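Hi team, as promised in this morning's meeting, here are the two structures we talked about. I've kept the exact order from the run log so nobody has to guess. The first one is mostly here for context; it's the second one we should focus on when we meet again. Sequence first, then the predicted structure tokens.
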Amino acid sequence: MVVAAAVLLGAAATHAHAQQPQAGAPQPPEAAPRIIPKAYLNMPERASGELPRLLSQTGAFTDARALVPSPGLIPYDLVVPFWSDGAEKLRLVAIPDAKVAFSPSDEWRFPPGTVFVKTFLLPVDANNPQALRRLETRLLVCSPGGQVYGVVYKWRADESDAELLPDSLREDVEVRTGSGSRRQSWYYPSRKDCLVCHNARAGGVLGVKTRQLNRDYPYRSGARNELAEWNALGLFAPPLGRVQPASLPSLAASDDATRSLEDRARSYLDANCAHCHRPGGTVAYFDARYSTPPERQYIVNGPVLIDEGIDHPRVVAPHDIWRSIAYMRVDTLGDLKMPPLARATIDTAGVALLQSWIESLPGRAVLAPPVLAPAGGEFAVPVDVTLQAAPGAEIHYTLDGSEPGRADPLYTAPIRLKDTSILRARAYQDGLQHSITAQGVFVVGQ
């Protein structure tokens, strides 16, 4: 079943903490006193407690079918959302009668009893962008002692309610295209999966911080700043006081042409990678946090732990997408993909942004690797393999799995393989950086 985008917008417009002024009415100097939601809503303090079996029982919505938030829940949005296989998200948070520990650059600390509510809606009709199917609603609960736990409620087909999932689940969702339909895989995470990203090093809560909420959004009387709105509600300790949002950090939206490519690329990496790629995080050298100065992030020309068989690899190799391991891992669905969990599609816009940034960095022009046709496989009879590279480039190859150099055979015609071989090829051209090695494994006659 699908829902119109108006449902999403209508729910987000329900700012339950304050009365919205009528058009033409004078604007109050600050937001009206907010309604204080019950701590934890109807959720237990810890995941070991008794969990509501239905979303409608959690206290997050007064009308789950219509996505009407309960009084006191605050809708919010982010400058740069985490990529979630193209899904749109409706974000709400219930903050009890306590303060959020504010930081200009680091993670905020949320009081126990805070509950984040995030509903995922997937576009399912290429001809109708407003056709959205509700897939799941995730609740992230802040427990005592700085701990968090997450649970997933999967929406019923009729969207009347959503049911608690006991474990992870994968589902194929039908998406209509201009010429028919396709199946998109969707992964519903387990409670253990939630803690992989919502880890203690990242503060448990992801995304909701100064640089993500320091954004303007449309309002009846003009633009309002989301960070300033939270401050006006008295949520922060310490409050912003005389500090203006313009003086605080803000991520750059990927399509914000007023910000530099570097700012936009670093913002994208912050939103999608920094919860793990930070000091004390995953085993890697670089720090993806936007708050870390670029020269201390060790991203550009940063060393890598696993070279993936590439010569001179870097986290980001200037002007060279082929030796940029971060780019490679974002641009694949194979075993190397990043993030490794709950991603079944490639964020083509994000990949294009990273490519534009990498290619804008000063560096030697580089050749793309040769294309092998066929790319490899099993063959009952001898097979002819063609190699193709950029015009003007020459290709050298080996058949024993060794690294090809200019002293190895020069490709001039299709290569006939009569036996099992590992064909490796590299492109060369004077004045350009040679390509990385392309490889194909051919099992012949077995």
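And here is the second protein, the one for discussion:
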Amino acid sequence: MRKSFAVLFFAAAVAVAGLGSAAGAASEIAINGSTTVLPFAQSTAEAFMKLRPDVRISVSGGGSGNGAKSLIDGMVQIASMSRAMKDSEINDAKKKGIDPVRHTVAVDCIVPIVHPSNPVNNLTVSQIRDIYAGSITNWKDVGGPDKRIAVVGRDTSSGTYEVWEEKVMKGTPVTPRALIVASSGALVQTVAGNPLSIGYDSLGYVDPKLVKALGIDGVKGTPDTARDGTIATSRLLYMYTNGAPAGDVKAYLDFLTSDDGQRYVAREGFVTLK
């Protein structure tokens, strides 16, 4: 599994250079949004450009909310999102003459992650909620060492945050003690660097050399539990276009959802559609 954490953490946008295309001659596609989708958006864009050197694709990841805003403002052809677009975003889009069309490109689940040295292997949804709310503050209360829990979360522009809020927190406020980070890669690096921390991230970002994924209510995050919804935090990953895609945008999306494109999704550690 390829993990370009340094790139994801230190760069707000990952530019993918066109291959073999003459200056000014290439068709250009801009993709912006979810840092969860970013790894396989980048790798499929690179693969597509090898097949189509007349197309240049730039990929950036500033969060699902920023992706939606970029599409609404006409700045990109594709918004990548790890949650569905909100009604308010769709209404804002329509006011500007934008017609968001959703395309499902992969499957995912969000898993709690801890340092590999942590003896805890499973938490209930209730325990996770209490940890993030600040009601449980010591690892010994959930089977770990007698040490204070360091809570790490995502910012509100993140689609991962939105899904975690919906499926786990259910409206319960997160403790103000939580450390908030801006990307999926940054969250993994933060948890990997603190033996007492807990975070949550996409299954595709879990590198067992750096962090340990916990089960939720006795269910581990796997491709199967993500696809069938057995794990409470399963979700779909999307790309949005303005209206039905056409031309090179459609060609890229067709490639991404094809068997060949889905192989890149799997190589990045994410869950394929089939």
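Starting points for discussion:
Residues 50 and 166 are 39 Å apart (CA to CA).
Confidence is low (pLDDT under 50) at residues 1-23.
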